[in-house]
Amino acid sequence: xxxLPTLILCIALLFAGCSQPPSFKSTDISGADxxxxxxxxxxxxxxxxxxxxxxxxxxxxxxxxQCPDVCPTTLSSMQAVLSALGDAAGxxxxxxxxLDPARDSAQLLAEYVTAFHPSFIGLHGDEATTxxxxxxxxxFYARQAGTTPGSYSIDHSTxxxxxxxxxxxxxxxxxxxxxxxxxxxxxxxxxxx
Length: 193
Fold this sequence. Notes:
By secondary structure, the chain is α+β, with helices and mostly antiparallel strands. Helices cover 32% and strands 24% of the residues.
């Protein structure tokens, strides 16, 4: 009896059982040793932590309500992502963290984020807490003087961070990524990939 066909069959079965890592459209940052926690207050006045959303995929974006371009386009894109997910959208939570706590009150955050989608949550903290959370997520932000006295804008990082339903940081979504690509990545995470 020739053992070669049996050996080939065993090797083929062994490799068939190995699964390929997921092919994400966004940047896979699984295992990153940062962006571990945030402890902020939501626009309803409730303290929130990442652990509050365990069981859901969580998308975290840092910005401010008076942002003229990146923030509204990102939140509009996330609205389209939820539409593309259909029934699975209920298993995704979008969190908008303000980098401008001096101007972004809870009421303003509530009006702003829910204008894009009723499930979106705005988060805020004081200046020191905001700086600490931004540092933990490696978010750059800097206030830039405006054209009138006392006015300013904020330059800031434009990526979104995605946590899987187990609460692990997994993806960095580039600004401008298509909603279909983000929805595809979220479907993989929701499927346990």
